[in-house]
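Researcher: Batch entry, complex prediction.
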Amino acid sequence: MTRTVTEIAAGVRSGELKAVDVLEQHLAAIDAREGDVHAFNLVLADQAREAAAAVDAAVAAGNDPGPLAGVPVALKDNMCTRGVPTTCSSKILAGWKPPYDGTVVAKLAAAGAVTVGKTNLDEFAMGSSTENSAFGPTRNPLDTTRVPGGSSGGSAAAVAAGFAALSFGSDTGGSIRQPAALCGVVGVKPTYGRVSRFGLVAFASSLDQIGPFTHTVADAALALQVVSGVDTHDSTTIPEPVPDLSAALGRGVAGLRVGRITDLPAGADPDVQERLDAAFAALAAAGATIVDVTVPAFTYGLTAYYLIAPAEASSNLARYDGVRYGLRVAGPDADSMFAATRTAGFGDEVKRRILLGTYALSAGYYDAYYGKALKIRRLMADDFAKAYASCDVMLTPASPSVAFEVGAKAADPLAMYLCDTYTIPANLTGDPAMSVPFGTGAGGLPVGVQVLAPALGEPVMLQVAAELERSVA
Amino acid sequence: MSPRLTTDDVAHVARLARLNLAPDELDRATAQLTGMLEHFADIDALDLSAVEPMTQPYPLVNVMRDDVPGDVLDRDEVLAAAPDADLAGGRFRVPPIGTPQ
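Model: C-alpha cells for the complex:
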C-alpha cells in the first residue's frame, strides 16, 4: 500500500495513478492515527485536495505537472507558507500567516508536490525529542510511548506513519538525521548552501539547512534534486550547478574508501555500535575498502555547537519583540512590552538557549566562549579535510541510542544535548550527512547509520547509503 | 578559565535578552547554565592561539545582485499581520519608547 515518492510521481505523470486517490489514502492514514502520533500542527486537507485535483487536470490536459507530481509532502512548521499559519511550535508566533512562500515551498509546489500539512517541532527547532512544542509532543509512530527524535520529529513521524510520502525538515545540529534514525526513515542534511534557506525561520543561520525525509534513498535523491540550487533570495547558496544526484545510486561501492573514525567520542549504546560495525562489514563485502582515520576535534564539537548555535539564536530571536508579527503582551512602555511579550511567548528551552547565547556573546566572555568556539569550528573543518584525504565517506552512528521514552530526558538539558554528539560536526563544517536505516537495535527499534561526505559530496554520500539500503533489504 | 556564574550574572543577561525571570526561575537557570559551562570546560586546555576563527562553512564573499526592483512584500499585507499598526499611515504602532529603567 505504501508507495514511494518515485512510484507516485511516475504513476501520476503517466496517468496510471490519480493524485487525488494518492492523497485520499494519505488523508485516511492521518485520520486513523494522527490522534495518537500528533505529527502535525495543521493538516491542510482542503487545500491539498484542490492541489491534487489541479495536478490530475494538468495530466489530463497533456501537461507534465513536474518531477514530484501528486506526491503528498509534509513541511516542518518553521517553513513560511503564504497565508498558512507558520508557528515554529511557539506561542510567540501562534496565528501568524507569512506574506510569502519560502523558496523550498515554492519549488515543491512548482514540481507538482501536494502539501498535506505543517509538522510539529521542538520550539524554534531547539530540541532532540519534539517534546519542547507549545502544542504538545509528537510520538514515535513505531512505539507511541517513545519520542520520534527532534527537532524535526513531526516530519520524521509523518513519513514513518504513512501520513505523507515525503517531508522536509531543517537540521541545525542533527534535527533531520536523528529523528530519521529514531523513526526508521531516510533523512538528509545537504551541504550548507546547497538548498536555499529563504523562508526558513532562522535558528542558527550559519548552521541551518533544509533537507528531505523519505522511505528510500532514491526518493531522497529525487526530492533533494528538486529543492537544490542557487537562490538570489539567499546569498549563502552555493553558485555551483547541481549534479544528477540519482546517477550513482546503482553503482555499488567497489573501490570506494570508507572511513572509520578511531577516536570517535564514546557514548553509543552497544546495540547501535553493533549495527555500525555491521554497516562497515556490509560495505567491505560489497567491495569498499575500510580505512581507519582520526578526527581529534570531533570530541569538542558539542561544546563548540552549544556556544555557537545559542549565540546565533539569541541574535536571530531578538526579532520576536511584539512589534511586527505574532504575540504582543501589553506594557506601559516599549521596553517592558518587549520583555513581557518574550517572557510569555517563549518556552523554557528557548529561554535557556537565549540566556546561554547572550552570555557567550556578552562583554568579558565573548573571547572565552564564542570566540573559542569559532576556533574549534576551524579545527573541526581542518580535521575533516585531513580525514577526507584518505577516504571518500565516513560512517558513524546517527544517534547514540534508539528512540527513548517520552519524558526520559525532559528534566536534564545536557542529557538531551548529548543526543547530538555524532550529528553536530557536519553542521559546524557545513558538509553533507545523512541517516539511513540499517536494521534494528534494542526492542526492535530502528537504528540509523550516518554517512558523512565532504562538501558537495551528495552523489557519493547517496551512493554509499543506497548500498547500505540494498544490503539490509 | 571558566568564571563562576552567579545569579547576578544571569539576571544581567536576562535583562539584556529582554526576558523576565522570577526568583525561582533565576535560581534554576543559574544552576543549569553552570552545569553546561562546566561541561564546556573541556575546551579550556586547548591552545587555540594560532587558530583562525571560522564563522561560515562555505567561503563566499561580497555576494551581489543587480540593483533593480524585485518582487517585494505588500506593505498592507505585512502591516495586517502586526499586533498593532496604523494602516493608513503605513506604520507599526508601539507603546512610548524611552521610559527610564
